[in-house]
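Pasting two entries for a bug report.
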Amino acid sequence: MNTKEIFMETYQKYIHRPGAASLLNWLLSTDFFEAPASTKYHGNYAGGLALHSLNVFERMSHNCVYEHGKDCGGCEPFPAEWMEPIAVVALLHDICKAEFYKQDFKNQKIYSEHGKQFDKRGAYSWESVPYYTVDEKFPFGHGEKSVFLINEHMRLTREEALAIRFHMGDFTDRNTGKAYEMCPLALQLHIADLQATYLDESAQALGKVV
């Protein structure tokens, strides 16, 4: 299966509350499954956003089961009902990036033995290459925007809203630490987001598996 199919299968397996189908249909109407996760950092390629969301889900669900599940050292089996909030915040934390990027072109030096010009690095030619840039249509923040877009279709719990709002870990906001103290789901999402970005996607970019 491709990334889009895996995302949809995971979403429909774990998210069942009223409005879930409407939200998924909205995602399908956007560029969510074709969009990058960033302009030049992690997942800066077509489909990077959906893949990042899946990576965060895999990390977060693994972390939570490992900490709390009986099969991985906990006292009792991992509660099945806990999987829905994990899926909600992990799969949807970055939907603010749907319809957020656009592709443009820029001139760039391409080095090769066939280059017609030279500099200290060698022979090169100027070529027009594609790149992503931001085209914000709804400037409403980052986590805040994702919370707003989800709530247009499906109701979030307070814990889920806090998790998505503070997943970036911006400690210049004095409420970030408080959110993590109050809401373990928020801290788990932030940790999984970091792991997915700096471990999984770095390895994927190198063609490796973590």
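Entry 2 (this is the one that rendered wrong in the viewer):
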Amino acid sequence: MTSSSSAEHAQAAYRLRFDWGLSGARALAENARPGDVAVVVDVLSFTTTLCVAVEAGIEVHPYPWAAVDAPAYAAARGATLARGRREGLDTGSVSLSPASFEGVTDVERVVLPSPNGSAIAFALADAGVTVLGACLRNATAVGAWLRAATERISVVAAGERWPDRELRPAVEDLWGAGAVLTSLGLESASPEARTAAAAYDTMRGDLAAALRACASGRELVGAGFARDVEIAAAVDVAAVVPVLRSEAFVDGSRSAGARTPHA
């Protein structure tokens, strides 16, 4: 890839940018500048679960999915290790399911493995940008926080994976990204970012029904996790802004614009 094509794929001519998945995140973060901010959107379910946990005052450490050293990583930080969705349901433990965090009062910090959102957050942070987590629950709060930013803002829809591990663009993440971008206004937005905003605008009148009816929503409902979809569909009910500081997401809503890059 030439430097010219790399700049084009990074949407470098625009302040507001949008792309998909881990590769898209890396492209957007190429040649990151101080003050650049990236927003990870993984509606079903990493960033929704992240949002619910931070709403409960829990510090969230993202971690790679199925990492064999995850228990030791959590123990070293005095954190609870979140389980897979089904395992969490069977054991009554916190998990990737946002519903598992409802009413939780005895957890201060959690390690939350995720196959998509967590990996993207790590890649963006390693590039030196400030990383936020957004979903439909806190899209407007994240947009308000971002309005203090003076540098580039990249919004990354995590998407899902096909069985062969290829990226499956997931419409719920497109809508979540569009909600954040819409809350910012679209001045100096790339065509990719404008398209995400337009997708959100098309569905915003009935997002709850759309989320239940989309492929990911139907999959979760069919597996017995309808409550997760309901939680994810609650638009703008949360004021928290999860910001990745050092190795954990904490609520940055009380310090809007105080962007501290990953160390």
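Dev reply: Rendering is fixed now. As a check, the viewer should reflect this: The two ends are 29 Å apart (CA to CA).
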